[in-house]
Amino acid sequence: MAPSEAWADDVSDAQATLEQAEERLTQISQEHAKLQEEAEGLQTQIDAAIEGVMDAQSEVQEGREHLGEMLSCEYKTGGIGLLTVLFESENLNELVNNLHYLDAVQQAQADEIELQRQRQEAFNTALDDLNTKKDEQMKKISEAEQKTAEAAQVVSNAETKLADAKDAAAEAKRLAELKAQAEALAKEQEEKQAAVETPVDPEPETSTQSESADNGSTESNSDNAGSNTGNSGGSSSGGNTGGSSDSQTGWKTGSASAYGSESDGTLGAATATGAIVTESSMGVAVPLSWPNARSYLGRQVEISYSGMTVIATVNDLGGMGGGSRSLDLQPGVWRAFGASSCFDWGVRTVSYRFL
């Protein structure tokens, strides 16, 4: 083959390689954009689902408190039994009236228990729906991430094929454009991923109302960590309970402390968002040491522990052992997990993901 013919073949091969790479990269970019659009659309659905879950969760909490009051009242009064009705009724009419009253009391208790069962079922259904949407979103994000890796591979393959081509210098500009396109795709993916896992801090706040050391959770609490056997009424749905993060589902594992008692002085205190810590507040704090820590404020977090799941809102910030703990739970949260006090909760390992 004449040298001119070999040169022409090299040129033709190099151009064909670049054309194939450009075509595939265009395809990948379109597929990536579609996945990102679908992930963003799912976020809108997730936000709506969160409202439904939190409403259902609130009803479960209120129902639990009402049942607790009924049982407490019965315990304090000694309750009303059939023998009490029989022995304390002075005549037949009074006996009939007391029996009707006893029946009404027992029916009211049975009705409340059934209502609570229905509330719990509604919460579980809403939570399952939320988790389905969140899992689907994380799957889309993972697929989009794979597209960026594929784009980088396309460029790398083209670069390798052109390395020995005599006209590599002539096609250097086209190759550089391909690399820039792949890098832009990777940067976009990184920003989208960060927006899901760690929202961008819009404006730094000038102060935080609860930036006291460890946010009310003392270091000694870590000695009180233990297992929970209480029934929170939470869903059995949960996340990854292993010791590492799962990038495909968004679940992370970390230590969670607790605060919100009179003894530590944080019950009734104002949080970073201005919310007040009450015995039923469903808030959590995150460490100030986290990047863009204040940007988590107002965001919902799903927390799973011992087969139970709670949705809480980030409304506070704290030292939290310099970030050695991931979450600091307020009373409504640790009570939902069955703890009797923040000291009873101590520091325990939980799974969590931001929604």
Radius of gyration (Å): 30 Å
Structural class: alpha/beta
Proportion of residues in β-strands: 5-15%
User: So how many helices?
Assistant: 7
Helix-strand topology string: HHHHEEEEHEHHE
At CATH level 3, the topology of the largest domain is Helix Hairpins
Helix fraction, binned, reads 40-55%
CATH class of the largest domain: Mainly Alpha
Give the distance, in angstroms, between the N- and C-terminal Cα atoms. Answer: 64 Å
Q: Give me the side-by-side strand order of the main sheet.
A: 1-5-2-4-3-6
Mean pLDDT, rounded to whole units? 81
Q: Overall 3D geometry?
A: elongated
CATH architecture level-2 label of the largest domain: Orthogonal Bundle
Number of domains: 2
Instruction: Characterize the main sheet.
Output: 6 strands, mixed, barrel
SS elements, strand count: 6
Low-confidence stretches: 5-9, 200-243
